[in-house]
């Protein structure tokens, strides 16, 4: 446990003073009992249990005061709380391989159905964005809480050529962190000496360069947003998806991956050519591992919907440092009320 205002802990020095004052009052009453025989006789008539009971209300009140003084210092602790991530980006593959029907009625149709179910299950305070990617990637719906707009964006999907998984990750990342800069035309998406809206750091004074220099954070530490990537994982163009995942990891963003299709795949043909489209699980597992997230396999449309539901539950529980001043204040109030009630019940007075 830590304290946001540790300097206020000096107020605990009042506790020994109050304890000393209480002991002084007890000694004063004892002298008065010796001076007045009637009081001494009353004290002798009290049994040990009854004499001990008269100290319980003051002790409870003293404990209440200690807890209240600790509350003034604003205690904080790392606890697991239900906390919705503010933003979820759904990045969905719309490449030609997604028309394969090894997942009924097709990979894309199953992905759309699962995405709709996921959106419907989210509470109103969750912002959701939609990214589609094939040979390139685009933000088809900026993060919003309007479910009708999200569902309409998913219904507009059309199959396109190529599969650029890395582009899907980077466009999703930019939807969460607009200042991130990248190069979609290269295998290595990292811009040379550039960060933050495309500004060249070489043209800045040395002091400004140091302040604008990007500093990586721990993977998974960006707890207010996540990316859910749904694809068959077969990259054919665009930036390296692992390098793209590393850029997300350096900014603390988790990329949950969902593999749609079957490992054996299916043969697709069109205009005299044919090819087998398989699920590339290894690539998706590497992306999830790089960003401290998880990979899920979806072999059927039912599996896909269940995975989205499980993701919904995984996204709401977090360990975070949370101020617990209210708990301390409530406990202090409870002790104070209990002290007053016992004093009234036993001695017909408050302390």
> Strand order, biggest sheet?
5-4-3-6-7-10
* Biggest beta sheet summary: 6 strands, mixed
Number of helices: 12
- How many runs of DSSP E, i.e. beta strands? 11
How confident overall, as mean pLDDT? Answer: 80
* Strand portion: 15-25%
Spans with pLDDT under 50 lasting ≥5 residues?
194-211
- Share of helix among residues? 40-55%
Shape: elongated
Succession of helices and strands? EHHHHEEHEEHHHEHEEEHEHEH
- Radius of gyration over alpha carbons? 32 Å
Structural class assignment: alpha/beta
Distance between the termini: 32 Å
Would you give an account of this structure?
This protein is α/β, with parallel strands linked by helices and 351 residues long. The chain is built from twelve helices and eleven strands. A six-stranded mixed sheet has the order 5-4-3-6-7-10, sandwiched between helices. Strands 1-2-11 form a three-stranded antiparallel sheet, covered by helices on one side. It has a two-stranded antiparallel ribbon with strand order 8-9. Strand 8 and strand 9 form a beta hairpin. Helix 1 packs across helix 2, helix 4 runs antiparallel to helix 12 and helix 5 runs antiparallel to helix 6. The longest helix has 23 residues. The chain is elongated and about 100 Å long. The two termini are 32 Å apart. About 5% of the residues have low confidence.
